[in-house]
Amino acid sequence: HTLAIEKLMQGYDQVLEPLFAGTEFGVAEENIQSRIRGNLLMAIANKFGYLLLSTGNKSEMAVGYCTLYGDMNGGLAVIADLPKTRVYSLCRWLNSDQGFNLFHHLKGKNTNFPSEIIPANVLSKPPSAELKPGQVDQDSLPSYDVLDDILQRLIHDHQGLDQIIEAGHDASLVHQVMRLVARAEFKRRQAPPGLKVTDRAFGTGWRMPIASKWIIDN
């Protein structure tokens, strides 16, 4: 099903116009779109007794590349302990003969489903929050290969700033990622519970103060 949100967004624009007058379109307006989507999905879940699955992966949750009360809505965060690069590798595995056969077995031989479990365009198009024209994740974040390696070293390998830089990562980029991880803690505290598949999942295996002095400023 496709639900249009243009008229809903226009309604928000009209209500907020007196307060937002003289300002430029920015993150606030972008996030309203995500929250409209989240509200609609929650309405559908409530109406029909479904469980809404939150879509955030571990890379996004780590750096706060997610919208509170928007794409973070849901009752269960299925892939919250999987970094973005692992999500892609799992998608490619699902489309392989081995993954396809397993899917066929679980679904039943008489079930009709497409030849590709994960559509090819999902894997080929640049990742995007789709909140403004031409937006891609790499406008705000390093490539996921780089980001996930930094996060692996920081979260799982317990490496500090100097160690991560010595591993070959740009110092300013490591600073940026560590700041984002620290500042996103308040979002993670409000996230739905996630499935734990690693030794250090957010929530059950991670505790960081929401307010702390260790955020790196330069």
Molecular shape? globular
Instruction: Report the β-strand fraction as a percent range.
Output: under 5%
Q: Report the average pLDDT across residues.
A: 90
What does the largest sheet look like?
2 strands, parallel
Radius of gyration: 19 Å
**Parts with pLDDT < 50 across at least 5 consecutive residues:** none
Number of strands: 2
Briefly note the structural class of the backbone: mainly alpha
Strands across the major sheet, in which order? Answer: 1-2
Share of helical residues: 40-55%
| Helical run tally | 10
- What is the CA-CA span between the terminal residues? 47 Å
The SSE order reads: HHEHEHHHHHHH
Describe the protein in words.
The protein is mainly alpha-helical. It is built from 10 helices and 2 strands. It has a two-stranded parallel ribbon. Helix 1 crosses helix 2 (27-48). The longest helix has 22 residues, at 27-48. It is globular, with a radius of gyration of 19 Å. The model has no long low-confidence stretch (mean pLDDT 90).
How would you summarize the topology of this molecule?
Blueprint: H1 6-20, H2 27-48, E1 53-54, H3 58-63, E2 76-77, H4 84-94, H5 97-107, H6 120-124, H7 144-156, H8 161-166, H9 171-183, H10 185-188
Parallel strand pairs: 1-2
Task: Summarize, please.
The chain has helices at 6-20, 27-48, 58-63, 84-94, 97-107, 120-124, 144-156, 161-166, 171-183, 185-188; strands at residues 53-54, 76-77. With 218 residues, the chain is an all-alpha fold.
